[in-house]
User: What shape does this take?
Amino acid sequence: MTRTFHELRRATLGAFLLAALLGCESAGGSGEYGVTATQFADVVVPAGMKLRDRANESHSRDDGGYRTAHLVYSGQSRVEDIESYLRLRMPSHNWQLVAESKVEDGIVMKFERDVYSVQYSVARADGATLMTVDYATDYSRR
Assistant: This one.
């Protein structure tokens, strides 16, 4: 009887530990729920802008050259300074500016290179500067 009780207790403990391990979220990142965003090397980010990665605000994926990302940054940089920085740095990564528009308290700039496009949306909100980077792959442009 004692042996069966100990075996049952050991099996119950093992099942509990397995369930706990399988139910855990990744804690590998700095965000509250783990980082799901990796910044690509050809995405330029001005100094002082920090990636917001809590609760999956930002995410990225790179599968053998197919890339997609939605990256959200915040900081205290001025919109005009970020615009100048993008104009200066993006061409050094072979990006070509294809569209831009002024929006309320900000700017939207779209760049293209080969099958990739990236759109920067920069604006002031709630006392900070928000910069959203949307990166996409479009094989129809080959």
Notes: The beta strands are 50-51, 59-63, 66-75, 96-103, 106-113, 116-125, 128-137.
